[in-house]
Amino acid sequence: MTTVAQAIAQSGLAAIDAQVLLAHALGVPRTWLVAHADEALAPDTAAAFAALADRRRGGEPVAYLTGTREFFGLTLAVTPAVLIPRPETETLVEFALERLPVDAAARVLDLGTGSGAIALAIAHARPRAQVVGADRSAEALAVARANARRLGLRNVEFVAADWFDGIAAGRFDVVVGNPPYIAAADAHLGQGDLRFEPRSALTPGGDGLGALRCIVTAAPRHLAAGATLAVEHGHDQAGAVAAMFAAAGYTDVAAVRDLAGIVRVTAGVRGR
User: Fold this and answer.
1) Tens digit of pLDDT for each residue in 85-130?
2) Rounded Cα gap, residues 76 and 84, in angstroms
3) How many CA atoms lie within 13 A of 247 on its CB side?
4) Which of 97, 120, 149, 263 can bridge 255 by disulfide, Cβ–Cβ 3.0-4.6 Å?
5) Whether residue 272 has pLDDT greater than 80
6) Strand partners, 257
7) Predicted model pTM
8) How confident is the model at residue 169 (pLDDT cuts 50, 70, 90)?
9) Taking 80 as the threshold, does the pLDDT of residue 140 lie above it?
10) pLDDT average, residue stretch 131-141
11) pLDDT at residue 16 above 70?
12) CA angle, residues 161, 162, 166, in degrees to nearest 5
């Protein structure tokens, strides 16, 4: 019979992918694999892992195969209806938290919420904040709401809206968004995990800046005085997005770098 170590070595996958998928098939944490490397796999487990490995070799994202993804310390359910949360997006969450009081009420809006990753991370870290996650996809909203229920977060709600179209009247203290920003002609859309993710969550078409223009232009009507808009964008879009903020009259425009030193988030304060 095949052992844990043999199954990983023979899978044809990167070690980390094989470990995550085998742990998923076994229903154990990855740390268990190290302590049980010589343990034989039951035939049904071996078959389940082989099927997962085959799909991964075909390019399917690990997150979709396991149905989960870690983000900002939270385990989130993900499906092919939502974008897979990525580590660089934690930069946006961290910036938003800096603008939100720890011990006071605040209103937060997350545009294009998808799995709810950003909204849920903020709601978890700021329990006195009231967080709204908005998305136009009914399937995405179902995933986000299920994540909120499983995490037991009661200070977040999810609503159907196309950016600001559908958002109830009222002003927010912080508005965040990770909109689609990849240009339609970008070759990366046909590579790796992106091939399997919802295209509408990846690109708005054209030069990739259309959704960002819409958000930056419309946000002041939904921001309280002195409130902040912060958006994630592509690695080469910082200059263009900063120019949008300036043209729309924001003040204190900031460029926020991720752990790789790339400007990943641009933010500004609503002008008077």
Assistant:
1) 999 999 999 999 999 999 899 999 999 999 999 999 999 999 999 9
2) 10
3) 11
4) 263
5) no
6) 263
7) 0.94
8) confident
9) yes
10) 98
11) yes
12) 40
In CATH, what is the architecture of 70-269?
Answer: 3-Layer(aba) Sandwich (3.40)
- Strands (DSSP E) contained in 49-206 are 68-71, 74-77, 106-111, 129-135, 156-160, 172-177
Q: What is the DSSP letter of 183?
A: -
d(CA 268, CA 73): 27
For the chain, counts of helices (H) and of strands (E): 10, 9
**CA proximity to 108, closest of 163, 156, 178, 160:** 156
Compute φ and ψ for 271, nearest 5 degrees.
-75, 165
Tell me the C-alpha distance between 215 and 234, whole Å. 15
Token pair for 224: 């309280």
Would you call 256 helix, strand, or coil by DSSP? strand
DSSP letter for each residue of 220-234: GGGEEEEEEEEEE--
With a CB cutoff of 8 Å and minimum separation 6, the contacts of 100 are 106, 108, 122, 126, 129, 173, 174
Contact 102, 126 (CB under 8 A): yes
Distance between CA atoms of residues 248 and 270, nearest Å: 9
Q: Which two tokens stand for residue 85?
A: 């949360």
Domain ranges of the chain: 4-58, 70-269
